[in-house]
Amino acid sequence: MTPSNHLEQTFAVVPAAGSGVRMGLNHPKQFHLLHGKPILAWTLERLLALPFVHGIVAVVPENAVGFVAALASSLGAGASVTVVAGGARRQDSVRAGLRALPDTCQWVVIHDGVRPMASPELFYRTYEAARQSGAAICACLAQDTVKMADSGWVQATVPRDRVWLVQTPQVFRRDLLERAFHLAQAFEWNATDDASLVERLGVRVAVVEGEKFNIKITTPEDLLWASWYLEHSPKDTAPLGRQKERP
């Protein structure tokens, strides 16, 4: 589905300003080479291939703005990617990305810079759910038994058929997302995902089935798994067999 109204466009905000200390590297994990390309490059390529995404705002460490702008140009997408500096928290970085969106943007896809393996179909399904409801996330239903614990003791067993492990992409109507972030700043709300802030508005957020291999690269083990997956996955990442043309 590609919106035909040029005044109603969809942009992606890619938070990628973290330091990645858990990876144990001497550089941010989003710039670590994976099969010869920075992890962030794989993620940007996935988004650039989506026909319904008109442009991307990549939010990165302040000292990496020039590097990422050059990286986007090397992918043939310099005009499609705006690069801005992020903040101390993911929430601050997403807010910086929202401020950089053009006036024509009405829908926002938020996708972590270190989730390079989300399929085109997952983006489509999440986007279509958001177009119907105003807000949508993808998530995987918990497979293991889930327990709540405190100080080393089990407090309760949670029904796993109601527990979902949240991923990105997350897609929102822009006005809902901006209102949520405005209130978050005013009331000092903190959240680890964007949908949590939208939920505080009383907005119902749709859930679509996520993908097991859509991992967020956080640990050295994740990096090994991602390397194996990219080596064995289909090389064509164009969504539903279509490649978006770039100027």
TrEMBL record:
Q: What is its pathway?
A: Isoprenoid biosynthesis; isopentenyl diphosphate biosynthesis via DXP pathway; isopentenyl diphosphate from 1-deoxy-D-xylulose 5-phosphate: step 2/6
Q: Which keywords does this chain's UniProt record carry?
A: Isoprene biosynthesis, Nucleotidyltransferase, Transferase
Report if keyword Transmembrane helix is assigned. Answer: no
Its EC number is 2.7.7.60
Q: Which domain of life is it from?
A: Bacteria
Q: Where is this site: Transition state stabilizer?
A: R22, K29
Q: Where is the site Positions MEP for the nucleophilic attack?
A: R160, K216
Q: Name one GO molecular function term.
A: 2-C-methyl-D-erythritol 4-phosphate cytidylyltransferase activity
* Reactions this protein catalyses: 2-C-methyl-D-erythritol 4-phosphate + CTP + H(+) = 4-CDP-2-C-methyl-D-erythritol + diphosphate
**Gene3D superfamilies hit by this protein:** Spore Coat Polysaccharide Biosynthesis Protein SpsA, Chain A
| Keyword check for Transferase | yes
GO BP annotation list: isopentenyl diphosphate biosynthetic process, methylerythritol 4-phosphate pathway
Q: Which InterPro entries match?
A: IspD, IspD/TarI, IspD/TarI_cytidylyltransf_bact, ISPD_synthase_CS, Nucleotide-diphossugar_trans
Transmembrane segments in this chain: where?
Answer: none
Under CDD domains, the record lists: CDP-ME_synthetase (cd02516)
Q: What does this protein do?
A: Catalyzes the formation of 4-diphosphocytidyl-2-C-methyl-D-erythritol from CTP and 2-C-methyl-D-erythritol 4-phosphate (MEP).
Belongs to which family? Belongs to the IspD/TarI cytidylyltransferase family. IspD subfamily.
This chain belongs to the protein called 2-C-methyl-D-erythritol 4-phosphate cytidylyltransferase
Per the UniProt record, the lineage of the source organism begins with: Bacteria, Pseudomonadati, Thermodesulfobacteriota, Syntrophobacteria, Syntrophobacterales
UniProt lists the gene as ispD
